[in-house]
Write a structure and sequence with these properties.
Distance between the termini: 35 Å
Number of helices: 9
Strand order of the largest sheet: 4-5-6-7-8
Largest sheet: 5 strands, mixed
Helix content: 40-55%
Length: 199
């Protein structure tokens, strides 16, 4: 097997960082122009990546060979969590691929702990991203209450110089309204629907 090109290695590294990416997300990120060209590029990587179908889209992730190539120990599988990751990764591209983006970040002030779906900065302001896909609104409410506890305690604000902007991606207009209502009392909250941010 011939050695991988730099672009092929970059594709594997991006999949290591983001777990699951659609064909369109990879096409957009690497400027691959046509769908046909993207299919050809990804087809050349079948030794390292696997895919699942979601409607008209293919979703790609690292297989055993791919994980070994990039030194990843995280095993990716099919399941309900895949769409959650795809929505999060769509937002990464929608917000111009922030350089300091980190997935699944544990934030704590010793009393309250939150696992943030993603953390990044924009215009010198820290942003926390939350993806509302399959969880109940009650689960969202509990998480928002933990954010309110972090805000009221003040330690996080003191540490960062400001309280982070809380950003949500959700699936419907109704859920957007419900999330906005639940977040009242937090300094800055933005709620997008997935349809709004999709490239």
């Amino acid at each position: 097997m011939k050695p991988l090109s730099e672009r092929q290695e970059q594709i594997l590294l991006l999949l290591k960082k983001f777990d699951y990416l659609t064909r369109d997300q990879l096409r957009f990120y690497f400027g691959l122009k046509s769908v046909r060209n993207t299919n050809r590029v990804l087809n050349d990587l079948t030794h390292f990546i696997s895919s699942i179908r979601d409607g008209y889209q293919s979703i790609y992730y690292l297989n055993k060979n791919g994980r070994e190539y990039v030194g990843s120990v995280k095993v990716r599988k099919k399941g309900g969590h895949v769409q959650h990751a795809i929505m999060r990764n769509e937002f990464y591209q929608f917000y111009d691929c922030p350089q300091d983006w980190k997935n699944e970040v544990k934030v704590s002030d010793r009393k309250t702990t939150v696992i943030v779906d993603a953390m990044f900065s924009k215009l010198h302001t820290t942003h926390f991203l939350e993806v509302d896909n399959l969880q109940s609104m009650q689960e969202n409410k509990l998480k928002i209450n933990r954010y309110k506890d972090l805000f009221n305690d003040g330690a996080l604000e003191q540490q960062l110089g400001h309280f982070p902007t809380l950003v949500w991606i959700t699936t419907t207009e109704l859920r957007r309204m419900q999330l906005k209502e639940l977040c009242e009392g937090l300094p800055v909250t933005k709620v997008f629907t997935y349809k709004e941010i999709k490239q």
